[in-house]
Write a structure and sequence with these properties.
The longest helix has 27 residues, at 21-47. This protein has helices at 21-47, 55-64, 175-178, 280-292; strands at residues 2-6, 12-19, 80-92, 95-101, 105-112, 114-115, 125-133, 139-152, 157-164, 167-168, 172-174, 179-198, 206-217, 220-225, 232-235, 239-251, 255-271, 301-320. The model is unreliable at 1-19, 47-54 and 61-74 (pLDDT under 50). By secondary structure, it is of the alpha+beta class. The strands form two sheets. The protein has an eight-stranded antiparallel β-barrel with strand order 3-7-8-12-13-16-17-18.
């Protein structure tokens, strides 16, 4: 989207061929969503290609059956890699949001309701890399990236406590009356490293598993108090994340479908920089250098805790380890 620059008299002065930052951010999100969708389509197409298992896979299948002949299309768990993509839907509990800026703000918004809107662009999605080890692939690890959302309900009438703009905050007010933005809609993003354990299989094709992990939240914070001249609209490293999961994998010769429940807990402490950011890496690097040099954010801090249930479904490509 091009930007029309207007001079002080209100006349259109020139057109810029460059998109606005908000437009660029929307384009990046759209590309990410499209890439995830294409990846899923490609993986589904590959899943239709049937093939016989390797000797090792057949031997593992026979061993799991106590030496009985196995269906050649059944694939037992083993040491392997899996690259996967998934979609899903989250539910995030209401939480308090605290704002602080010395000499101006020190207030809390009580029980803010968060909306996930998983099927509205940018959609809920995730990608992961898994590594199962050992001859039977019972233990594993996983690097998991989740792109969720947490958007406040602007029509919600919330309770306020403390001081806003140096005065007592209203006892109740509409979220939309106090904030122009209060959300992480370009990503309540979480990056976690997880340990995995396979549970006893129901059949060769159905393999349950559990996992536990921790990592960091990398949200695109979008916060703008209506009385502030500037907004915070950038990627940040906001705090630690914990994750627990339980799932079931449906195994094909080279592919796997999976259904999973995840519980995530993310503590956020967002520096309100009062600026529009760029991309994840440059925004986080700028945040790190300011923290290293002891620079306080211009508009203070906002903090909350996102506690979420997530139901996901996805598909992955398995790559065997060894000959």
């Amino acid at each position: 989207m091009s930007v029309l620059h207007v001079n002080e008299t209100g006349d259109a002065s020139s057109w810029s061929i460059w998109p606005s930052r908000a437009g660029l951010l929307r384009a990046v999100d759209a590309i990410a969503c499209l890439t995830a969708a294409v990846a899923i389509v490609v993986l589904v197409a590959n899943a239709t290609a049937e093939e016989l298992p390797s000797k090792d896979e057949a031997a593992a299948a026979r061993a799991a059956l106590g030496g009985n002949p196995a269906d050649p299309k059944r694939v037992a768990p083993r040491a392997e890699w899996m690259i996967a993509a998934y979609g899903g839907t989250p539910y995030t509990y209401s939480s308090d949001v605290k704002f602080s800026k010395p000499g101006l703000h020190d207030f809390t918004v009580k029980d803010v309701e968060w909306q996930g809107m998983p099927f509205i662009n940018p959609i809920y999605y995730g990608v992961r890399v898994m590594r199962w080890i050992g001859g039977d692939g019972r233990l594993g690890s996983m690097l998991d990236f989740t792109h969720s959302k947490a958007i406040s309900d602007r029509a919600q009438e919330a309770k306020f406590e403390g001081t806003l703009n140096g005065k007592p905050a209203p006892e109740t007010a509409l979220i939309g009356g106090i904030f122009r933005k209060l959300e992480a809609s370009h990503g309540h993003n979480m990056l976690t490293l997880n340990g995995l354990l396979r549970l006893p299989s129901f059949t060769f094709r159905l393999s349950p598993y559990v996992g536990l992990g921790a990592g960091v939240s990398l949200p695109h914070s979008e916060v703008h108090i209506a009385t502030d001249a500037t907004r915070t609209y950038e990627y940040q490293m906001a705090g630690p994340v914990g994750q627990a999961l339980i799932g079931i994998e449906f195994r094909l010769p080279r592919m796997s479908y999976f259904l999973e429940y995840k519980f995530t807990l993310a503590d956020y402490r967002m520096p309100l920089s009062g600026r529009d950011g760029d991309i994840l890496f440059t925004d986080v690097w700028r945040q790190f250098t300011e923290w290293w040099n002891g620079v306080e954010p211009r508009d203070g801090w906002a903090s909350t805790r996102f506690t979420s249930h997530q139901a996901i479904g996805g598909i992955g490509v398995r790559l065997p380890v060894g000959p």
